[in-house]
Design a protein that fits this description.
Pfam families: Proton_antipo_M. This is NADH:quinone oxidoreductase/Mrp antiporter transmembrane domain-containing protein. By secondary structure, the chain is mainly α. Among the domains are: 297 residues, no CATH class; 46 residues. Helix content is 69%, strand content 6%. It is built from 29 helices and 8 strands. The chain has a two-stranded antiparallel ribbon with strand order 1-4. A hairpin with a 6-residue loop joins β5 and β6. α6 packs antiparallel against α8, α6 packs across α9 and α13 packs antiparallel against α18.
Length: 703
């Protein structure tokens, strides 16, 4: 019932935007759509705690076949995330939509709601027809969002690239589903998953690879990830939080529905997912470091974070395939946790980028600076987002990345040498990614918020819309809570991971530890006491320590963490520094003029910009970037007035995959075109040859 009411509210929102005026129609449309998101999020929560599958819609369409939808706990999690992202982004969307004329305003909001409706349908799809239909509907709606605001060449080109690669991925995914459905003799996704153990190993491996790289396009997995920075860099500022915080999860969900049951019986598929995710994460953060456009930087960072979540999923499936479902569950929890975290802090950061664009008119980092002083609320919340995405404790990014890196170390339980090597290399790539991510977001926050304003627009920034500030504040608090309440969230994700890997890690490893009122067994307590299991038990609302693996026979702790205690320690440290500073303020302080070396005033152009900060990265990874220099000069007669050099970096996926594919397609097309430009005698020869071959074949059949 909630689904029906929510969808009616989604339809009512754009219709209310057709009313005359600007403010009242926008408020009414926002209220209707946000209420629908709240109802849909409520339905997601109900689904998470509900049974394994609950039918929603069952239709038998002529020719097409069954068109069914079902409610599942995993789908409920994705619906909750999606509805929450849309809910916090809609105030900014409605504000920007109010600047359009009535018709375009309603059309814009209709495309936004179509995106949401298609995604919810995708997370509820039960057959390959409904699965592909909702995927395609979401792809078309995303293309509409990217190209809606302008008809300039760059947004149109980015939208067409997104749509083309999406269709290429859809084709690969559809072939995968048709192969599996034909072999399993059922179009139902549950039936296909149940039949996989009885299918040909070669067939399921091929189908799994097609599904991974086909649907992986939407998650930004290499090699088809070049669309993401182009699309997000040109999309309307109010839709970027939706595109990054919500729509990228479509690809991850497709992995979990299609590839998870396959990887349990094709172990090397899990290794491919793990290594592809780790490589995607590293490449994403390297390219983010050399971006000076804030939106493109955040888009490249989305590639990185999707890679991290994919690596967690791949590691979990590999552990389960090699007979270690508990360790697989721990890795899968890390992957799901990071998916939630990415949606939280990336929505926060894109809202901040949109707010900066709204007040300064630019998102070029080299033209910003000094915004923390002029926009303290936005700057503070934006800084929390950078802490979270850089995986600094006690924020949420730290929890999921720590769980993933620690779970990869447990590959020692698997004796297979190639598996150990793959895990070791993937872990090294992810560790390097974490270090580069910290550098990247120091650069982002420093160049955008700190220092002196490097343009007149940044110097005059003074006001940010409340439709940005309030959602940013909510997401900043949520980023902290998702880090502190790890012992409350991990059991929920463990239950969702259980059907994917065959075991619930929190119920099987240390079951009592994640329940505050339960008593921990004495042997486990003795093992955990030295690392602080009982610290804060009297006043903390949850267990402070997160333990994901423990050998209860000899009682060694394999890995544990505590973001709650880290937070308490940080508060005590910061409080001590504040008290010390207050105490020193009352003492006599001698002030004197420092030697300025002749520099009486620091000018904005003397400060570090994003471009100069990233210079060492450009040098170290020059072989990866493969840059080329574009030279522009202005002449007057024989004299050169100005000459400028610009370094252009091409994405490695574009250079090694996309451009060769396009070149090969043009070559084939040109050769085929020659067949249509020949002489009449040549065409007559073709016809004669075809007739002779047909007669020979008929004659052979007659005998």
């Amino acid at each position: 019932m909630l689904y029906i009411i929510a969808y009616l509210l989604f339809v009512a929102g754009p219709l209310l935007a057709l009313l005359p005026g600007r403010r009242i129609p926008s408020v009414l449309a926002w209220s209707s759509m946000t209420t629908g998101c709240v109802l849909m999020g409520t339905e997601g929560v109900i689904a998470i705690g509900g049974p394994a599958a609950q039918p929603l819609i069952q239709l038998a369409l002529p020719i097409i076949g069954p068109f069914d939808f079902v409610q599942t706990p995993l789908g409920g999690l994705l619906i909750l995330i999606t509805a929450s992202v849309f809910a916090v982004a809609l105030p900014f969307v409605a504000r920007d939509a109010s600047a359009f004329p009535q018709g375009r305003r309603a059309l814009f909001l209709s495309i936004v709601m179509l995106t949401l409706a298609a995604m919810i349908g995708f997370f509820s799809a039960a057959t390959i027809v409904s699965f592909i239909f909702c995927w395609e509907l979401a792809a078309i709606a995303i293309w509409g969002l990217i190209t809606f605001e302008t008809r300039q060449s760059k947004p149109v080109a980015a939208g067409l690239l997104t749509l083309a690669l999406s269709e290429l991925g859809s084709l690969a995914g559809l072939v995968s589903l048709l192969l599996l459905a034909s072999a399993a003799s059922t179009p139902q996704l549950v039936g296909i998953a149940a039949a996989i153990p009885h299918l040909s190993p070669t067939l399921i491996l091929v189908a799994g690879l097609l599904a991974f790289f086909g649907f992986g396009m939407k998650a930004g997995i290499i090699p088809l990830n070049v669309w993401l920075p182009a699309a997000h860099g040109t999309a309307p500022r109010s839709t970027s939080p939706i595109l990054s915080g919500a729509t990228l999860n479509l690809g991850l969900y497709a992995f979990l529905r299609i590839d998870a049951p396959i990887a349990l019986h094709a172990p090397y598929l899990g290794l491919i997912i793990l290594s592809s995710g780790a490589l995607t994460a590293l490449i994403g953060i390297i390219y983010a470091l050399v971006e000076k456009d804030m939106k493109r930087l955040l888009a490249q960072s989305s590639v990185e974070n999707m890679g991290i979540a994919t690596a967690g999923i791949g590691a979990g499936l590999t552990f389960a395939a090699y007979g270690h479902p508990l360790l697989g569950g721990a890795s899968m929890v890390a992957g799901l946790y990071h998916m939630i975290n990415h949606s939280t802090f990336k929505t926060l950061l894109f809202l901040g980028a949109g707010g900066i664009d709204a007040t300064t008119g630019t998102h070029n980092l080299d033209e910003l600076g000094g915004l923390m002083k002029r926009l303290p609320a936005l700057g503070g919340f934006f800084l929390v987002g950078t802490f979270a995405i850089a995986a600094l404790p006690p924020f949420n990014g730290f929890v999921s990345e720590w769980l993933l890196l620690e779970s990869l170390l447990r590959v020692v339980e698997i004796p297979d040498i190639p598996v150990r090597i793959t895990f070791a290399l993937s872990g090294a790539l992810l560790a390097l990614t974490s270090g580069l991510a910290l550098t990247c977001f120091i650069m982002l926050s420093g160049s955008a918020l700190m220092g002196l304003p490097r343009s007149e627009r940044a110097a005059q920034a003074h006001k940010v819309p409340r439709t940005v500030i309030i959602p940013m504040g909510m997401l900043a608090v949520l980023s902290l809570l998702l880090g502190l309440a790890a012992t409350l969230i991990i059991p929920v994700l463990g239950r969702l991971a259980a059907p994917l890997v065959g075991a619930n890690p929190t119920a099987s490893l240390v079951p009592a530890f994640f329940h505050p009122r339960s008593s921990i067994p004495l042997a486990v307590q003795h093992a955990l006491n030295p690392i602080g299991v009982n610290v804060g038990a009297a006043f903390l609302p949850l267990r402070s320590l997160v333990v994901m693996h423990l050998d209860q026979t000899s009682a060694p702790v394999v890995y544990a963490m505590s973001t709650m205690l880290t937070f308490v320690v940080l508060i005590l440290m910061l409080g001590s520094v504040w008290l010390l500073a207050r105490g020193l303020r009352h003492k006599r302080i001698t002030r004197s003029t420092l030697w300025d070396a002749g520099l009486t005033r620091l000018r904005p152009e003397m400060t570090y910009t994003a471009t100069t900060f990233a210079a060492p990265v450009r040098v170290v990874f020059q072989g990866l970037f493969h840059p080329h220099i574009e030279e522009d000069e202005e002449r007057q007669g024989a004299f050169v007035l100005t000459r400028s050099h610009r370094q252009v970096i091409t994405n490695i996926s574009d250079r090694l995959v996309l451009k060769p594919m396009i070149s090969a397609a043009f070559t084939v097309a040109n050769r085929l075109a020659r067949m249509h430009k020949g002489r009449v005698n040549t065409y007559a020869a073709y016809i004669l040859l075809a007739m002779v071959l047909a007669l020979i074949m008929v004659g052979g059949t007659g005998r």
